[in-house]
Amino acid sequence: MMTQEAPQIHTLGALKASGYQSKSIQEELRSNLIKHLKAGQTAFAGIWGYEQTVIPQVERAILAQHHINLLGLRGQAKTRIARSMVGLLDPWMPIIAGSEVNDDPLQPISHFGKISVAELGDNTPISWVSREDRFFEKLATPDVTVADLIGDVDPIKAASRKLTYADPEIIHFGMVPRAHRCIFVINELPDLQARIQVALFNALQEGDIQIRGFRMRLPIDIQFVFTANPEDYTNRGSIVTPLKDRIGSQILTHYPETIEIAQKITAQEVHLTPQQEKNVHVPELARQLVEEISFAARESAYVDEKSGISARLSISALENLISGAERRSLVADSGPTTIRLSDFHSVVPAITGKIELLYEGEQEGADRIAQLLIDEAVKRVFKEVFPKVDKVTAKDGSGPYDPLLLWFVDHEGVDIHQDADDTTYRELLDSIKPLDALIDKYASAYPDDARYILKEIVLWGLVSAKKLSRTQIGPNTSFQDPYGAYFKKI
User: Fold this and answer.
1) What spatial distance separates the first Cα and last Cα of the chain, rounded to whole Å?
2) C-alpha to C-alpha distance for 187 and 48, rounded to whole angstroms
3) DSSP assignment of 26-40, as one string?
4) Structural domains for the chain
5) How far is the CA of 19 from the CAs of 13, 14, 106, 107, in angstroms?
6) H-helix or E-strand containing 211?
7) Which end of the chain has a smaller Cβ tally under 10 Å, C or N?
8) Residues 238, 279: contact at Cβ < 8 Å?
């Protein structure tokens, strides 16, 4: 966001009189970062979990005036870090008006810029570029050409201006020259063909470009930020050695190390409508369960950890979870509602679209693996909150779960309908009286809005310990004593 209006300086003479001095973009980034550090400020606000790891390394690279390669799996905020660097640029940058390559009025590099200053002198017109317009980004794909990045001859320009093909004015500059004095991000660098990387290296190191026989010395001033995925080094390509050797700092990124940090990231990035925020209440415990799914996926034997589990899994899962609860309340016409554990069937599409399965996972099927990850997330919270389930039931019925298990022996079980209204849902769980005693004893620290999720977690936890059985029939989830039906037949 712009913090001030552009300076009212419109000629080269007025710019000189103002005391303006040219400096490279890396000097600009360095000097502004020093101001931020001295003031105790950060240019990387909203990037959680990197405060003691990645961000200090990025700041050291900027102070060292290095080009940067951010190496990490998908969904690790690599591009967000690069975009945040825009905040370290000056609010406005002067250029020669009409320049295609952001010519510095005091140090023009293009034929157009040099001719303008030579002919007009101090009357050379000046325009201003905001810091937000000094960020260029390109996704490296195999179809990227040298013309895209460096430039090519423009026959239409030659014809319209009646120029010969010997005139350098017929050149159409690519993205790299146009990013002069800017931040230029190339995402997934290993996907760029080797010959394109070599052309990029030549422009980066030598300031020399060649377009259709035109050999031009352009001391291009760019802060390069590259991003790459470790998997790409073997699966799709690599960074050519000369280019890699010129990248001053290679910084490894990582996933959130704690559930709390992951929740901050998801809460910041999730997109909800005002109606969803008003009508669907999300207990903190539900948010924790969403993050536990991602953590479980990163440790699952069915999921390819080399591919990575993006933070977007949690973001999409939370959006789907809330939308599922919203749909449920609309179907039941029951007004505002609260997330239930049974709503988590809604997150399955968010999981299946965000994980790469190993062979064993493919055999099981994506939907089945998604359900297993949800079960694992619930199991982790169950173990964190409630006591361990003993394999053998105490003879005197003194175990923490014995009253609940006996309740299921004496009853037919319960069927939780996914689309039941809130009153029906709560009355059903309240009818299982032993659940209240468990919640009061072991989960009293949790707020009231998590009480019914906790009741469902107890049931799911006992299913995972094979003390209860769970059956999914259409929209109904049935919990029963696993042996009750058998004995009743005898």
Assistant:
1) 75
2) 21
3) HHHHHHHHHHHHHTT
4) 12-252 (3.40.50.300), 259-486 (no CATH)
5) 10, 9, 12, 15
6) strand 208-211
7) C
8) no
CB 307 within 8 A of CB 73: yes
**Residue 314's CB: how many other CB atoms inside 10 A?**
30
- Long-range interactions of 301-304: CB distance < 8 A, separation 24+: 301/358, 301/360, 302/357, 302/358, 302/360, 302/361, 302/364, 302/369, 302/372, 303/355, 303/356, 303/357, 303/358, 303/361, 303/369, 304/355, 304/356, 304/357, 304/358
Rounded to two decimals, what is the model's pTM?
0.87
- Can you list the positions of beta strands (E) in 140-207? 151-153, 171-173, 182-187
What tokens appear for 287 in the block?
């948010």
Amino acid at 417: H
